[in-house]
From TrEMBL:
Belongs to the zinc-containing alcohol dehydrogenase family. It comes from the Eukaryota. Keywords: Metal-binding, Oxidoreductase, Zinc. This is Enoyl reductase (ER) domain-containing protein. Residues 74-378 form the Enoyl reductase (ER) domain. Its cofactor is Zn(2+). InterPro entries: ADH-like_C, ADH-like_N, ER, GroES-like_sf, NAD(P)-bd_dom_sf. GO terms for molecular function: metal ion binding; oxidoreductase activity.
Length: 381
């Protein structure tokens, strides 16, 4: 089997072998959150600080606060941090206070003009954060699954849940995601949720536009993140790990004893190695042109390495090739959270660099220079 890494495209095959408003108040003495006059949600003492933070964020939103976001304006120009009006979710959508966002090559492809995308836009598409607000008319099932204050992780493929593919469980082929977000830079009513504070100018969204202090995400793209997993490292579950899992589980259908070759062992490729190991692959071959990355690949599960500059990788690896774009958010993301929680997938080892939000532009510069092994994350909390 060969996997060519990158969240835009993976090649693989098998070889033998209700709306939150300012009426939400925190009762610190009773460890409760009151909604309006009657409804009370009990909170354990350990969750009081989280509830307090949620209440504070909710007040900031309801009072018409602003936020900052990282904007791509035009090809090969530095990204800039701009002030935005607070984004507002619509039905079936959730406003997230972003805690961390991964630094992915797909963002870099957009920045360099290698992937056509509407601009100006906010990049960033693998995030963790905290639920702040539900869009009007959001169904109760979603509100119960992801209540205000919940810790969440978001997938870059954001399924609408209603198209012909989503109705069959094929979230990775969601028609609305590709027709609206990838083709137009909007959510599924054809509108962005991002507007500059001073001019009101609309700014497009690459997935949820995660390189921002807040972002709006369709609820189907979110999964609960347990307290045991850190915000920063867990951001990569939404793309690097998510894409790798999609290739291994759905496209390649890896089984115990299979042989796997991964070509390119960056953020997605190194995640493929860990997923292949978790699935019980016997021979796991890492192919790259950088010896440092190949050495690191051994810690992710590679049993063999090939430097494609020094050796003919094609002669060493004969394969059939099939394509894969990513995973299926509603099915796969909760599984990835469990893999990480159990330690089978090592998040700490997968994230090799961390940047502050103010240094996000440098993160992409370092990525472009090849200075990042595996994955980097920007801390936005």
């Amino acid at each position: 089997m060969m996997i060519r890494s990158g969240c835009k495209r993976l090649f693989s095959s098998k070889k033998n072998g209700s709306v939150l408003s300012s009426s939400w108040l925190l009762n610190r003495n009773n460890n409760q959150i009151n909604k309006g006059d009657n409804d009370v949600i009990k909170r354990s003492p350990s969750s009081s600080s989280a509830a307090a933070a949620a209440a504070a964020a909710a007040y900031h939103v309801s009072s018409g606060g602003s936020m900052r976001g990282l904007v791509f304006w035009e090809t090969n120009k530095p990204l800039t941090i701009e002030e935005f009006n607070m984004p507002r979710p619509k039905a079936g959508e959730i406003l997230i206070k972003t805690k961390a966002c991964g630094v992915c090559h797909s963002d870099l492809h957009v920045i360099k003009g290698e992937i056509p995308f509407s601009n100006p836009c906010v990049v960033g598409h693998e995030i963790t954060g905290e639920v702040v607000e539900h869009g009007p008319h959001t169904d109760n099932k979603t509100i119960q699954r992801l209540p205000v204050g919940s810790r969440v992780v978001g997938a870059f493929i954001m399924p609408c849940g209603n198209c012909s593919f989503c109705s069959k469980g094929h979230d990775d082929l969601c028609e609305d995601f590709f027709a609206y977000n990838r083709a137009k830079g909007t959510l599924y009513d054809g509108e962005t949720r991002l507007f500059l504070r001073n001019s009101g100018k609309p700014v497009f969204m690459y997935s949820m536009g995660g390189m921002a202090e807040y972002c709006v995400v369709p609820a189907n793209a979110l999964s609960v993140l347990p307290d045991s997993l850190p915000y920063k490292e867990s951001a990569i579950l939404g793309c690097a790990v998510f894409t790798a899992y999609g290739a291994m589980a759905h496209a390649a259908e890896v089984r115990a004893g299979d042989s796997v070759a991964v070509i390119g062992v960056g953020g997605v490729g190194s995640s493929c190695l860990q997923i292949a190991r978790a699935f019980g692959a016997s021979d796991i071959i890492a192919v790259d042109v950088h010896d440092e990355k190949l050495q690191k690949a051994k810690t992710f599960g590679a049993t063999h390495t090939v430097n494609a500059i020094q050796e003919d990788a094609i002669e060493k690896i004969r394969i059939q090739v099939i394509g894969s774009y990513g995973g299926r958010a509603r099915q796969d993301l909760p599984k990835l959270v469990k893999l990480a929680e159990s330690g089978i997938f090592n998040l700490a080892n997968a994230v090799t660099r961390k940047y502050k939000f103010e240094d996000a532009n440098k993160a992409y510069e370092d990525l472009n220079k090849g200075n990042i092994l595996s994955r980097a994350v920007v801390e936005i909390m």
